[in-house]
From TrEMBL:
Membrane topology note: Multi-pass membrane protein
Full protein name: AI-2E family transporter
Localization, UniProt: Membrane
Organism: Vineibacter terrae
Primary localization class, coarse: membrane
């Protein structure tokens, strides 16, 4: 088979796989979640297997422990989270109005300083109020449809009951799956593909496992700290901040707006409490940027934050929540392939303008 036919074959296969994922995106969540859990826990499964001398027993022990921990956490925080969510949905218009009233003097000061006419400011306020109302109605409609949708209920039940089963079988059979995939690699390029997959595994494992740990630590920190300083809905806001912190810059900005905006709506004229919320958020950002992320994540993924945000947005737009889960691993693998292609290009006659092939410094470890 010629090189052009091989390239055409793999491109058609990749396009077919992408189309299949897009068509089945609404039912893939339990499988993707199970794969993520199995991938995340596989190193721990390997360690337990060395102690008990059985892959199946090691998987059973780990699944039982993970299930008990997950159920315990769910039972501990689910009542508080559901109560805060219901109260927040009911009081959100009131808090929005209160925050707008407190920011109005600042808006008027800016209006006078920059010479904005009163009629234009009034029009802007009317439009802003209308858009805020539309946004609240839209969020309410989306939440209502998610809760009442029969298909969403089926997905939720599938996620709760199928994900542990899928994760169990994947963890138990992980070495067999790897060996099977390796057996189907084209023999002429098997060593090259194995090297690429090792690089991709290093990038994905370093980012996914590290970033998941960062998100969990931040969710615990923000939820506990914001609740202790007395912020209304501090627990749910802290959990949201922690969970969205995997999005570079956007997660931090959104978390700051949520926490500080709620503090401005609740506490003034008690500005000391507002300062406490700001301090909690500042400490969290310092820990994330200078302690957690460098130690647990580092530069393992090798992708610029802008491209990472693009991958997250593109994955979410095309494939929904499943796309969000897959976007970072796909971006990591794509980054490995692109760097390999660039090395091959620089070592080719197309780049050098000669028929000689040389060994570049980048080829050395």
């Amino acid at each position: 088979m010629t090189a052009s036919r091989q390239i055409r074959f793999w491109l058609i296969g990749a396009a077919a796989a992408g189309l299949l994922v897009w068509l089945l995106r609404d039912m893939l969540l339990p499988f993707v979640a199970g794969l993520a859990i199995a991938y995340f826990l596989n190193p721990l499964t390997d360690r337990i297997e060395k102690l008990v001398r059985s892959r199946t027993l090691a998987t059973v022990i780990l699944v039982i422990i993970a299930t008990l921990v997950g159920v315990g956490l769910l039972l501990a925080i689910a009542p508080l989270v559901s109560d805060q969510l219901a109260t927040l949905a009911r009081k959100l218009p009131e808090y929005t109005t209160r925050l707008y009233a407190r920011l109005l003097p600042l808006l008027q000061t800016l209006q006078e300083r920059f010479g904005i006419d009163a009629a234009g400011a009034k029009d802007f306020e009317s439009v802003l109020a209308a858009r805020a109302g539309d946004a609240l109605r839209f969020v309410g409609a989306v939440l209502g449809s998610v809760v009442t949708s029969g298909f969403a209920l089926v997905n939720l039940l599938a996620l709760l009951f199928l994900t542990p089963v899928i994760a169990f079988y994947l963890m138990r059979d992980w070495p067999k799956l790897v060996a099977t995939v390796d057996g189907y690699l084209p023999r002429a390029h098997a060593d090259t593909i194995r090297g690429l997959m090792r690089d991709a595994n290093t990038a994905v494992a370093g980012y996914v496992r590290g970033q998941a740990t960062v998100c969990l630590v931040l969710a615990f920190y923000y939820g506990t700290a914001l609740a202790l300083v007395g912020l209304d809905f501090g627990l749910i806001i802290g959990i949201i901040i922690g969970l969205i912190s995997f999005i570079p810059y956007v997660g931090s900005f959104t978390g700051g707006v949520l926490a500080i905006g709620m503090a401005l709506a609740q506490f003034p004229p008690d500005w000391l409490s507002v300062g406490k919320v700001v301090a909690v958020f500042a400490v969290g950002q310092f820990l994330e940027g200078n302690v957690l992320a460098p130690k647990l994540v580092g530069d393992s993924i090798g992708i610029h934050p802008v491209w990472l945000m693009f991958a997250l947005l593109a994955g979410g737009t095309l494939f929904g929540f499943v796309g969000l889960l897959l976007s970072v691993p796909v971006a990591a693998v794509a980054g490995v392939l692109v760097r390999f292609a660039l090395r091959e290009y620089r070592d080719s006659a197309y780049y050098r303008g000669t028929t000689e092939r040389v060994l570049l410094d980048t080829d050395h470890p």
